[in-house]
């Protein structure tokens, strides 16, 4: 297959003509593609539209990795896609997409993206479809085009791969297959411009480098520290979804270390900024061990919950805020923790919006740390049956393993005590560790009041 380099007017790393890899020269088979994705591809194709699997799913299939999602690209407009599928809904304002629903599985269908007009040529009409802010970030991106233009709009060369359902060939627009084989992550176009268009691409660069065991090309890596603060322009809810991808897929520790090195972790968790400066001290060690434990559980096929993860990440900011409140206002520890928890979570929500279904259990894990320290007599048995006991106990073990010298002995003894209590008096069946539902409150003392007997019904 002869490679044709791109003319100077094309983005960096884009080929003038794509490499078309026939079926007998690549390993991607239809048996490895989810049935719903095949249904979408064939219905689009049979209706006369172009239909391709695109991006990460093609990349992963070439790497013999089972794709988590299958995305489809087509020349059909979203409204045309919707007419073909009764189980379709259109979503997104920034990127208009069609979601084809197959039970709990969703196949995302995107129309080929085109180029934006130059700034001096933009009209009121074009701005309805594409818009940038002052930093160059795309606020709206619904300019449609051809497959060639769509490939140029992709972020990394390894994602500019299209599997054609018409003849089962792969169209490689940016030497993506070569970069996969060489283990190099390259950007399509100028990296600084692409990061300004969508700062989340910096997080994606880190995630792909660790997930795919690739090294970032210097042109990809070098601008990241300079532009890390652009993450402040991203909606906190979107950054929460990115955090889940970074920290709950088996590469949490590697991602943490790279994110910290490139000053991105500090943007996601500003309250942890100072703790990253002292890797030998307890707060940093707790962070590192949290991510290592998360990876270990995933490798063993065990469940994890973001509630536990965020409880651990924000523990030391919580302790610092509690100490402030107790010193300045003389509050008792229980009251100080409740106020500090609200403050710390509130600050975190400004950068990464953690949903209540995770912050409520996280607060319960924090509150149980105090109760584990004070429990005696009958309260020990009560705590053993608490729905959040197991998560709180695991967190206690984590604290003991990463404690400061002053707390090491106390926390180790406390952890040993609760370990022995479970051995001697096994707890009753409790809520699974990954259940994010808030623990149920006990009913009022005395039970329900009895109703006064009424008059007998007349016959």
Structure in words:
This protein is α+β, with helices and mostly antiparallel strands and 459 residues long. It has three domains: 4-189, Beta Polymerase, domain 2, CATH 3.30.460.10; 198-268, Hydrophobic Seed Protein (Orthogonal Bundle), CATH 1.10.110; 270-424, Orthogonal Bundle (cca-adding enzyme, domain 2). Helix content is 47%, strand content 11%. The chain has 21 helices and 14 strands. It has helices spanning 35-46, 56-62, 78-84, 124-127, 147-153, 176-182, 191-197, 200-211, 218-221, 224-227, 236-247, 252-261, 265-268, 282-299, 306-313, 315-329, 333-349, 356-374, 378-384, 389-401, 405-424; strands spanning 4-5, 15-17, 19-21, 51-54, 71-74, 88-91, 97-102, 105-111, 130-132, 138-141, 161-164, 170-172, 184-185, 215-216. Strands 3-12-11-4-5-8-7-6 form an eight-stranded mixed β-sheet. Helix 8 (200-211) packs parallel to helix 11 and helix 17 (333-349) packs antiparallel against helix 18 (356-374). The chain starts with a strand and ends in a 35-residue tail after the last helix. Mean pLDDT is 89; it is low at 118-127.
Q: In brief, what are we looking at here?
A:
With 459 residues, this protein is α+β, with helices and mostly antiparallel strands.
Secondary-structure topology with pairs:
Layout (H helix, E strand, L loop, with lengths): L3 E2 L9 E3 L1 E3 L13 H12 L4 E4 L1 H7 L8 E4 L3 H7 L3 E4 L5 E6 L2 E7 L12 H4 L2 E3 L5 E4 L5 H7 L7 E4 L5 E3 L3 H7 L1 E2 L5 H7 L2 H12 L3 E2 L1 H4 L2 H4 L8 H12 L4 H10 L3 H4 L13 H18 L6 H8 L1 H15 L3 H17 L6 H19 L3 H7 L4 H13 L3 H20 L35
Parallel strand pairs: 5-8, 13-14
Antiparallel strand pairs: 1-2, 3-12, 4-5, 4-11, 6-7, 7-8, 9-10, 11-12
């Amino acid at each position: 297959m002869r490679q044709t380099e791109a003319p100077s007017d094309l983005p960096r790393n884009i080929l003038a003509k794509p490499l078309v890899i026939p079926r007998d020269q690549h390993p991607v088979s239809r048996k490895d593609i989810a049935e719903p994705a095949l249904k979408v591809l064939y219905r689009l194709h049979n209706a006369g539209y172009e239909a391709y699997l695109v991006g990460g799913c093609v990349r992963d299939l070439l790497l013999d990795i089972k794709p988590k999602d299958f995305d489809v690209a087509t020349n059909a407009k979203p409204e045309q896609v919707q007419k073909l599928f009764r189980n379709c809904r259109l979503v997104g304002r920034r990127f208009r997409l069609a979601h084809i629903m197959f039970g709990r599985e969703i196949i995302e269908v995107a129309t080929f993206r085109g180029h934006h007009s130059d700034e001096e040529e933009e009209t009121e009409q074009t701005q309805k479809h594409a818009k940038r802010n002052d930093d160059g970030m795309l606020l709206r991106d619904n300019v449609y085009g051809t497959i060639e233009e769509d490939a140029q709009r992709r972020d990394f060369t390894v994602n500019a791969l299209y599997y054609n359902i018409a003849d089962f060939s792969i169209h490689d627009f940016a030497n993506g297959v070569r970069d996969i084989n060489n283990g190099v992550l390259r950007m399509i176009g100028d990296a600084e411009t692409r990061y300004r268009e969508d700062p989340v691409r910096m997080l994606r660069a880190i995630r792909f480098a660790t997930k795919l065991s690739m090294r970032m090309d210097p042109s990809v890596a070098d601008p990241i520290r300079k532009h890390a603060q652009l993450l402040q322009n991203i909606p906190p809810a979107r950054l929460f979804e990115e955090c889940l991808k970074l920290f709950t897929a088996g590469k949490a520790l590697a991602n943490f270390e790279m994110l910290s090195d490139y000053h991105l972790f500090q943007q996601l968790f500003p309250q942890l900024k100072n703790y990253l400066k002292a890797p030998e001290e307890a707060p940093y060690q707790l962070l590192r061990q949290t991510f290592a434990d998360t990876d270990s559980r995933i490798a063993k096929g065990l469940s994890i919950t973001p509630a536990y993860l965020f409880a651990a990440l924000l523990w030391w900011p919580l302790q610092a805020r509690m100490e402030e409140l107790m010193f300045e206002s003389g509050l008792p520890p229980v009251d100080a923790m409740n106020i500090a928890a609200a403050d710390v979570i509130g600050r975190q929500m400004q950068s990464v919006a953690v949903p209540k279904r995770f912050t409520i259990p996280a607060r319960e894990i924090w509150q149980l740390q105090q109760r584990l320290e004070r429990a005696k007599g009958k309260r020990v048995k009560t705590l053993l049956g608490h729905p959040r006991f197991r998560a709180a106990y695991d967190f206690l073990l984590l604290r003991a393993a990463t404690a400061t010298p002053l707390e090491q002995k106390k926390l180790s003894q406390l952890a040993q005590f609760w370990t022995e209590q479970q051995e001697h008096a096994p707890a009753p069946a409790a809520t699974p560790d990954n259940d994010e539902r808030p623990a149920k409150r006990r009913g009022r003392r005395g039970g329900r009041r009895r109703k006064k007997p009424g008059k007998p019904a007349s016959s």
